[in-house]
Design brief:
Layout (H helix, E strand, L loop, with lengths): L1 H30 L11 E6 L2 E8 L2 H6 L11 E11 L3 E2 L7 E7 L2 E9 L10 E2 L5 E8 L2 H4 L8 E5 L1
Parallel strand pairs: 2-3
Antiparallel strand pairs: 1-2, 1-9, 3-8, 4-7, 5-6, 5-8
C-alpha cells in the first residue's frame, strides 16, 4: 500500500513539474514581442531557454555601428540586442572593443549560429570580423563565456520582452 502511494506521489510531482514548465513557456510566448517594433531607446529581456539577459537595443545604423565599442565593463547577463529589418548574413567586427564577447545570431526566434569567447583586438591588430553561417534577423552580444555558462546552443528558442 505504501509503495502505491509513493509511486502515485512521484507521478503527481512529475506531472506538476511538467505543467509548471509548460505554463512558464506559454507565458513567455504570450509576452514575446515582435523585434521589428523595437527602437534604439528600448531595453529588452532576452530569454534563451533558461537564461535571461537584459539588453540595450540597436536598430539604427548609428547605434549598430557603435555597438558595445569603447565600453570598459559589461555586467554579467547584460548585452546589446541588434535588430535587422531584412534577414541577411550581417557581419560584425570587434573595432574599438575592450571586452571579450559571445555572439548569438537568431532567426525567427531561434538561435541559428554562435561565436564564443571572441577576444578584443590587440592595439596593433586588425579587428576580427564575424559573419553568421545563414541569414539572421537579430543578434545578441553578451560577455564572453556566457554561452558556455548558460549552456546556450543552436536550436534554442528565444523570447523577447520589452522592459
Amino acid at each position: 500500500m505504501h509503495r502505491k502511494r509513493a509511486v502515485f506521489l512521484i507521478l503527481t510531482l512529475l506531472f506538476l513539474a511538467a505543467a509548471a514548465v509548460l505554463a512558464w513557456n506559454m507565458l513567455l510566448v504570450s509576452r514575446n514581442i515582435d523585434p521589428s517594433t523595437l527602437t534604439d531607446n528600448d531595453r529588452v529581456a532576452v530569454y534563451i531557454e533558461k537564461a535571461r539577459f537584459s539588453a540595450e537595443v540597436a536598430v539604427s545604423p548609428q547605434k549598430k555601428a557603435q555597438g558595445l565599442s569603447g565600453r570598459v565593463q559589461l555586467m554579467p547577463k547584460n548585452g546589446m540586442f541588434f535588430v535587422f529589418e531584412n534577414p541577411d548574413r550581417h557581419t560584425f567586427w570587434m573595432k574599438d572593443m575592450l571586452l571579450g564577447l559571445d555572439f548569438i545570431w537568431m532567426r525567427n526566434g531561434t538561435v541559428v549560429n554562435i561565436a564564443k569567447n571572441i577576444p578584443p583586438p590587440e592595439p596593433d591588430q586588425e579587428p576580427e570580423t564575424l559573419t553568421p553561417d545563414s541569414a539572421v534577423d537579430a543578434m545578441l552580444e553578451i560577455p564572453a563565456g556566457s554561452v558556455e555558462q548558460f549552456s546556450i546552443s543552436v536550436g534554442d528558442r528565444v523570447y523577447i520582452k520589452r522592459l
